[in-house]
């Protein structure tokens, strides 16, 4: 499992180099939600969790923005099987 961190890795390099290795992208509303999801996924999924990219949107407004932008991007690569949004 990978925690997406835009400050450490540019979005451009993620899109054109790394997105191809994931089966799923999970966008959580907040940082705490992402941490909880990663803990649960690791416990339940074992090695399978390595093909999941997890990020937090820093709030519900940005979740809506990502819900508009990510689906067309994912369709272009066709390897991503699951796009999930977690909000509370």
Q: Mind sketching the topology for me?
A:
Layout: E1 2-3, H1 11-18, E2 24-28, H2 31-45, E3 52-56, H3 60-77, E4 82-86
Parallel strand pairs: 1-3, 2-3, 2-4
Helix content: 40-55%
Query: How would the global form be characterised?
Result: globular
Total beta-strand segments: 4
Order of helices and strands: EHEHEHE
* Low-confidence blocks of residues: none
Number of helices: 3
Measured distance between first and last alpha carbons: 22 Å
Task: Indicate the radius of gyration in whole angstroms.
Answer: 12 Å
Largest sheet at a glance?
A: 4 strands, parallel
Kindly report the spatial arrangement of strands forming the biggest sheet. 1-3-2-4
Q: What structural class do the secondary elements suggest?
A: alpha/beta
- Describe the oligomeric state of these chains in a short phrase: single chain
Characterize the structure shown.
- The chain has 88 residues and is of the alpha/beta class.
- Helices cover 47% and strands 19% of the residues.
- Strands 1-3-2-4 form a four-stranded parallel β-sheet.
- It is globular, with a radius of gyration of 12 Å.
- 12% of the residues are buried.
Write out key terms for the chains shown.
alpha/beta, four-stranded parallel beta sheet, single chain, 3 helices, 47% helix, 88 residues
């Amino acid at each position: 499992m990978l925690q997406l961190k835009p400050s450490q890795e540019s979005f451009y390099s993620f899109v054109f180099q790394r997105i191809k290795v994931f089966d799923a992208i999970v966008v959580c509303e907040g940082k705490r939600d992402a941490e909880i999801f990663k803990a649960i996924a690791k416990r339940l999924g074992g090695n399978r969790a390595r093909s999941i990219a997890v990020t937090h949107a820093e709030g519900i407004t940005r979740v809506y923005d990502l819900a508009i932008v990510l689906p067309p991007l994912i369709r272009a690569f066709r390897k991503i099987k699951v796009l999930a949004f977690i909000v509370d």
